[in-house]
Amino acid sequence: MINFNLTKEKIKSEDLIAFEQELELSLPETYKAHMLQFNGGAPEKEYFKGVSVAHFNPIKNGRRTLEDVIKSLKDILPINYLPFAYDPGGNQICMDLNDGENYGKVYYVPMDMGDTNPEFLADSFTEFVNGLSLENSY
Questions:
Q1: Phi/psi zone of residue 50: left (φ > 0), alpha (ψ -120 to 50 degrees), beta?
Q2: Overall average pLDDT of the 100-110 stretch
Q3: What is the pLDDT of residue 62?
Q4: Which 8-state DSSP code applies to residue 106?
Q5: Are 109 and 73 within 8 A, CB to CB?
Q6: How far apart are CA 47 and CA 88, in angstroms?
Q7: Is pLDDT of 75 > 80?
């Protein structure tokens, strides 16, 4: 189990349901469980395959919520990519929420001058979180 610092006020299941309905997205159950426990925050173990994870975006109760991030990046990110976290440089870590074989897979999306070329990181949110480490040994 990994711990998170700087988390926001806890959310309820109703908040997740409203979020999914408003954005017309279906979130993976493991992600929903994580958000109910932490609602954003900075992971104690911050590295995954060479990517530094600065912070997870909160669903609500933060200065910049996940909905705010989605709205600000809607014309930049691939359709139905959920920018659930970011690195220290503002590059996004996203889950593909499109129906199909890539649903739930995690990607690193560099935000280089408007070009977005997603780089595969993990087959699932669970694999991503469980693979976080203290050292950048990739």
A1: left
A2: 96
A3: 80
A4: E
A5: no
A6: 11
A7: yes
Torsion (CA) 129, 108, 47, 112 in degrees, nearest 10: -150
Helix axes 66-73, 13-23, angle to 10 degrees: 10
Q: How distant, in Å, are the alpha carbons of 6, 107, 111, 138 from that of 83?
A: 18, 9, 12, 23
Partner residues linked to 122 by β-bridges = 106
Out of 3.40.1580.10, 3.30.70.100, 3.30.1600.10, 3.20.20.140, select the CATH number for domain 4-130: 3.40.1580.10
**pLDDT value at position 1?**
65
**Mean model confidence pLDDT for the chain:** 92
Domain locations in the chain? 4-130
In this prediction, residue 138 has a pLDDT band, given cuts at 50, 70 and 90, of low
Helix ranges restricted to H, 44-95: 66-73
pLDDT, residue 135, reads 86
Mean of the pLDDT values across residues 90-94?
A: 95
Question: For the chain, how many residues are written?
Answer: 138
Q: Would you state the pLDDT for residue 119?
A: 94
**Residue 19 token pair:** 């979020």
